[in-house]
Amino acid sequence: MTSPKTFIIAEAGVNHNGSLDMARKLIDVAVGAGVDAVKFQTFKAERLISRHAAKADYQKATTDAAETQLDMVRRLELDAAAHAALIDYARQSGIAFLSTAFDDESVDLLAKEFDLPTIKIPSGEITNGPLLFKVGHAGKRVILSTGMSTIDEVELALGALAFGYLGRSDPSPEEFRKAFADGRALLSEHVSLLHCTTEYPAPFDEINLRAMDTLKVTFGLPVGLSDHSSGIAIPIAAVARGACIIEKHFTVDRRLPGPDHRASLEPAELKAMVTGIRQVEMALGDGRKVPTAAESKNALIARKSLVAAREVRKGEPFNGDNLTAKRPGTGLSPMQYWAALGRFADRDYLPDDMLSTVSLETNPYRT
After folding, report:
1. Would you call 182 exposed, middle or buried from its count of C-beta atoms within 10 A (0-12, 13-18, 19+)?
2. CB–CB of 303/289 below 8 Å?
3. Which one of 3.20.20.70, 3.40.50.2300, 3.60.60.10, 3.30.300.30 gives the CATH number of domain 7-284?
4. How, if at all, do strands 118-121 and 305-308 pair?
């Protein structure tokens, strides 16, 4: 019996570098790797970033440090026509299309114009009450990343979503807290949480996979991992720890210019991650400690049976000198060793002959 299948999201993000052809290639890579969904990012740069916003350190290291964050992101937009083309291409390719919404206009585009069933909310928007309320009001399923947040902030964000799902008016943090309590059933139907460490690449000693357990226990929602670490070990480990969703950045080439390429997997790595996750799912099993079919067959070879250690004549008592345990395990279990001591041989035994059950069950030579 295998564990439930992990939903694997290949995060193309902005690694298309503003090129529709590159975006299609990313979809091809995702399909080839065997993931469940490919995800892009939906935003209007001017609605997302002010002209005063500085770049993150990792962005300065991977792009022109003198360029503003606004100018960098402006080149990475995908307009409505590009979204339509990619959604259609993904559908033809047999893979689910997802996107992250960063602003109100993007929510309308994804939820209303394209009627996507699921909206991804990134870690940076977890305190954006108006956006969360709007997404909840749209009634869509939500995957919410929780990087940089506290448990209280996650609860308030869930309250904002619940407030929208409940169709309430006059939003406020106080009302969100009430909605969190009232809307737990709706949240269970609609929302999954992703633990995340918002750094690129994320230091291994700051990933804290055990926080997934905290999120699951605290909120009772499906929990996964949006992973920004180097390599594929962490997402595979997260699945072994119970993650039901894995999200991981990927690119066609890590050497390309752009803010996220260096912290992304290349095609072969993405495929290896998927393979590793699927193997872990099979290995997790159902938790019952019983011999498997393969073990049952091998037990006869690997285990031992009680045998004569030397030649034993009929009527001679078994003792520590003439009785031992050797493979195969097709005879009496060595656990019967003490029961056999002092019993009399029911027949002649050559070295390595297995003890007969008769030696224990009926022994006419016992005095």
Report:
1. middle
2. no
3. 3.20.20.70
4. unpaired
Instruction: Report the run of H or E that residue 20 belongs to, with start and end.
Output: helix 20-33
Q: Give me 9's structure tokens.
A: 């999201």
pLDDT band at 256 (very low <50, low <70, confident <90, very high): very high
Gap between the Cα atoms of 144 and 122, Å rounded: 6
Q: Does the pLDDT value for residue 359 go beyond 70?
A: no
Q: How far is 343 from 323, CA to CA, in rounded Å?
A: 11
The answer to whether residue 271 scores a pLDDT higher than 80 is yes
Residues constituting the chain: 367
Identify the DSSP state of 125.
G
**pLDDT > 90 in the chain, percent:** 86
Per DSSP, the three-state class of 59 is: helix
C-beta neighbour count of 354 within 10 angstroms? 16
pLDDT confidence of residue 71: 82
d(CA 210, CA 348): 62
Identify whether the C-beta of residue 362 lies closer than 8 Å to the C-beta of residue 343: no
Architecture of the CATH domain 293-361: Alpha-Beta Complex (3.90)
> How far is it, in rounded angstroms, from Cα 302 to Cα 167?
64
In degrees, to the nearest 5, what angle opens at C-alpha 43 toward C-alphas 38 and 44? Answer: 155
Q: What's the rounded Cα separation, in Å, for the pair 134 and 111?
A: 10
Report the predicted TM-score, pTM, of the whole model to 2 decimal places: 0.88
Q: How far apart are CA 285 and CA 270, in angstroms?
A: 24
